[in-house]
């Protein structure tokens, strides 16, 4: 099975529990692959909320420029997920995020892992902008 390896210099910045909903499943009886990206999004947005970074269509903020997921084991209803969100590799305008999902009733067993490249952007100019110092401190 193809798996990526979380970088050694990653930093855990957020954890949360997410319920697996009945409607998350598809006709095959397992969580649909698109839902994993929703789980990742929920964790990422919750982390940004803790930083006081709500969506700001008229200002600066984070934009995801790519996302990936490795599906390791099938998730099925019912259950809850422990989602962990990590950051690494801050650059001038971007940083990497990594996420893991495990069932709360199977601690340590990773069901999926993924991530995204996050770029800080200026919505007015539609261009990347330097990471603010306060954010760089959080992701370094």
Description of the molecule:
The chain is of the alpha+beta class and 140 residues long. Helix content is 18%, strand content 39%. The protein has a single domain, classed as Hotdog Thioesterase (Thiol Ester Dehydrase, Chain A, Roll), CATH 3.10.129.10. The protein contains 2 helices and 6 strands; from the N terminus they run E-H-E-E-E-E-E-H. Strands 1, 2, 3, 4, 5 and 6 form a 6-stranded antiparallel β-sheet that branches.
In short:
The chain is of the alpha+beta class and 140 residues long. The protein contains two helices and six strands, in the order βαβββββα.
Structural class: alpha+beta
Number of domains: 1
Multimeric status of the protein: single chain
How does the major sheet shape up?
6 strands, antiparallel
What value does the Rg take, in angstroms? 16 Å
Question: For the record, what CATH class applies?
Answer: Alpha Beta
The general outline is globular
Cα end-to-end separation = 31 Å
Any low-confidence stretches, pLDDT <50, length ≥5?
A: none
Rounded average pLDDT: 93
Number of strands: 6
| CATH architectural designation | Roll
Give the SSE order as H and E letters. Answer: EHEEEEEH
Helix content: 10-25%
Strand content: 35-45%
Count of helical regions = 2
For this structure, the CATH topology is Thiol Ester Dehydrase, Chain A
CATH superfamily: Hotdog Thioesterase
């Amino acid at each position: 099975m193809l798996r990526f390896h979380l970088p050694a210099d990653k930093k855990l910045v957020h954890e949360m529990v997410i319920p697996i909903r009945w409607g998350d499943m598809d006709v095959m009886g397992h969580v649909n692959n698109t839902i994993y990206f929703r789980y990742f999004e929920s964790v990422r947005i919750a982390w940004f909320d803790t930083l006081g970074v709500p969506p700001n269509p008229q200002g600066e903020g984070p934009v995801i420029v790519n996302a990936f997921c490795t599906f390791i084991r099938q998730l099925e209803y019912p259950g809850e997920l422990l989602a962990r969100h990590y950051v690494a590799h801050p650059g001038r305008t971007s940083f990497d995020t990594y996420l893991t999902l495990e069932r709360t009733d199977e601690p340590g067993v990773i069901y999926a892992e993924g991530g995204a490249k996050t770029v800080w952007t200026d919505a007015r100019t539609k261009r990347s902008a330097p990471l603010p110092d306060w954010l760089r401190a959080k992701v370094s």
